[in-house]
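Student: I would love a firmer grasp of how sequence relates to backbone shape in proteins. I am handing you a single protein, as its sequence and its fold in token form. I am told such tokens are a discrete way to write the fold. I hope you can help me see how the letters and the tokens relate. Take your time, and here it is.
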Amino acid sequence: REPRLVSLGEIRAILAQARSLEPTKKLRSATYSTILGLLFATGMRIGEAVALNVGDINEGLLNVRRGKFGKSRILPLHPSTSRAIEQYVLDPRRPIDSKKTSPLFVSGRRRRLSVSLVDTTFRRLCVSADVSQPLPRPHDLRHSFVIQRMEAWYKDGGDVNSLLPVLSTYLGHVSVENTRTYLRANGSLLEEASRRFFARTIHLDAVLP
């Protein structure tokens, strides 16, 4: 299936639904709003997120130890993202301790959150948030992160070709080619590319017959 990009408005609606998950006296609402926010903000794989331990977060850096193909990496986090995770770890509703070796994201059964459970809950949250069809999957948050990062570079006038290896490293890809598969024909990216092409070639209109 083609990637289903998630807009900023949609993720806000999804997170709002996550914060209202029942039972409100349990950690569930904080768990899903935090992990989904983290996926959208960093483009992490869902398997990497559920594998995180409390000790993998340190001074604004996120240590991804269980990346695909055993490839580990360290991600710098936005201050707001760091604060959200710190608040989650210190949440008084947390059913287990906050030792460095404890799982970061936990279920109501005091166990490490599973990929299948996140997938099921994410779908239900999308329905509750009245997100249009086709419904996105957790992995689509990763695609959305890539596209938004590229859009930002285009708008800032950055050298996208030279920045692509940086994005590839951040995502934990073995090769830049793996990152390019995320950049399928996309309306917003094509629009930004068109604007850049126009800005660089408008002077030719004066010399062409």
